[in-house]
Amino acid sequence: MTMHRFFASAFAVVLGMTGLPVLAVDATHTHEAHPAKLQLDQGRKWATDEPLRRGMGAIRAVMAERIEAIHRNRLSAEEYRAAGVAIEQEVARIVAECKLEPKADAMLHIVIADLLAGADVMQGKVKAKPVAGAHKVVQALNAYGKYFEHPGWQGLK
């Protein structure tokens, strides 16, 4: 099973279990093996498409509206859970709609893996403090901005 098919299957299972609508995911898409760490495209940021920019912007917005409460330790477990669910939904939409060239797609999967890992912690699926999951999501968003072309992108702190 390719990493893409794994993520596609995982998204469908996770979203189905939450009772949320499951988006159609193209699991037939294949590409070369994923590199171990993010890197630029010969010194340049990777190209993006509109579905990716829209989805990443939505994930950034989820975190930006909560970042102050996270920093002040005022976000409830339910608010973390809701943010994690929203992140998973946006990632599923990105996977379903985004069409990047294979090397850029491989780089994106590294960011997606970190987003999902953080979302899992935020939802309590992984035994760790939700703030650690939020931190992982913010790191993934900032890495996206560093390695992918997204006009007007602003990182989070």
Your description of this structure?
The chain has 157 residues and is mainly α. It has a domain at 47-147: Four Helix Bundle (Hemerythrin (Met), subunit A). The chain has helices at residues 3-18, 50-64, 67-71, 77-97, 102-122, 130-147. Helix 1 crosses helix 4 (77-97). The N and C termini lie far apart (36 Å). Residues 1-34 have low confidence and may be disordered.
Main features:
Four Helix Bundle (Hemerythrin (Met), subunit A); 6 helices; mainly alpha; 0% strand; 157 residues; disordered N terminus; single chain
Helicity, as a percent range: 55-70%
Give the overall shape, derived from the CA principal axes: globular
Return the string of H and E elements. HHHHHH
How does CATH name the architecture of the domain at 47-147?
A: Up-down Bundle
Mean pLDDT: 84
Backbone structural class = mainly alpha
Major sheet details = none
How far the N terminus sits from the C terminus, by CA atoms, comes to: 36 Å
Topology:
Layout: H1 3-18, H2 50-64, H3 67-71, H4 77-97, H5 102-122, H6 130-147
Helix pairs in contact: 1-4, 2-4, 2-6, 4-5, 5-6
Quick structural gist:
The chain is an all-alpha fold and 157 residues long.
